[in-house]
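Work Package 3 (structural annotation) set out to generate three-dimensional models for the target panel prioritized at the project kickoff. During this period the team completed the workflow that converts sequence records into discrete structure tokens, so that structures can be stored uniformly alongside our sequence database. As a representative example, we reproduce one entry of 377 residues exactly as it appears in the project archive.
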Amino acid sequence: MVDFRINSYGTVMYALRCEMKSYKAGIIGCGSIANAHAKGYKTLGIEITAAADISQEQLALFQKNYGIQNLYTDYKVMLEKEDLDIVSICTWPPLHAEMTINSARSGVRGILCEKPMAVNLAEADAMIEACDEQCVKLAIGHMRRFSEPYAEARKVILSGAIGEVYFIHGVTVGDLLSDGTHIIDMIRFYAGDVPVNWVVGQVDARGKRTRYGHYIEDSSISYFEFENGVRTFLEIGLPYGKQQSNFVQAGSSVLLPQSTMWWRKGAKYTTVYVHGSEGRIDVGERESPKLRYKGKGDIDWKIPQLKGTIDPFAMQIGALIESIEKNTEHPCSGQQGRAALEIIMAVHESARRRAKVFLPLSVKGYPLAEMIEKGEI
């Protein structure tokens, strides 16, 4: 299903626009990422009939920008009153589980929940269970599977141009839950979405920071192996450059390691280096070019021509409609989202144990938060 889209963006988008006018969508949480969802629905001709947010100001702005008439400050009231087919959940991660479960029980047919799926595996499991019980299709917002450079990189892998993938190196600024979830999902995508055997991870969380309502680390490194033998090294937070030991003020009460501010200087974001037996692929949305590769015997880099007009948010919504209509699994399904989350939890758990962690992971809580609250890190 994904590869068909890679080859036929325009055809698929046209077909989806023709078939989706009868669907009604609602959006929970009208912050910045909700705009990308709204534009995706508009691109496909899907009517956004309602939106919910605790901020009247955000609701008013959303109504002005997208012409949504039915506005609610309580999402539960929206679910009760509106006859919705699809719900986008664009709130902070600690709210995802409750909102997904309530949306599934309200009678919708599909849910697009922003990443990360949740802040622990217990919540992720509850989300999947609720959607399965109600026969609701759940998709997690790892939209880079539909983003042109990353999707084309997968196409190059499938073509055999770089031989057999054996090692993947990922680099991104940010933190594991907020940003690392994207690059982990991409690594899983390129490794064939097979399970992971084990994870070794280390984190620096001296800042004891919070973001989007949950604790995050300042930086992390991890190494893990997939069941097919592909191994991965992942750097998040402080990818390159001289280490900084001093702290800088950020706001009234939070001290950040100076190096965590490097993202403002154009640091790498979701950059992936895929090593094969006969070549290599470099892909990253901040790279120039965004995608390049060398195959067997190539002296110079090959640079695929990208259209640059693909809306990955519209594509993931379109895939959700297709999964509803055909009763198939979404490329970014709840199970796929859980798999990425499990790797994140395993990195934190490995740091807590100071040992290799084998999957499946039995820990259902959030190890990083537990370490910080107990003064263990």
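The chain has two domains: 2-143, 145-307+334-373.
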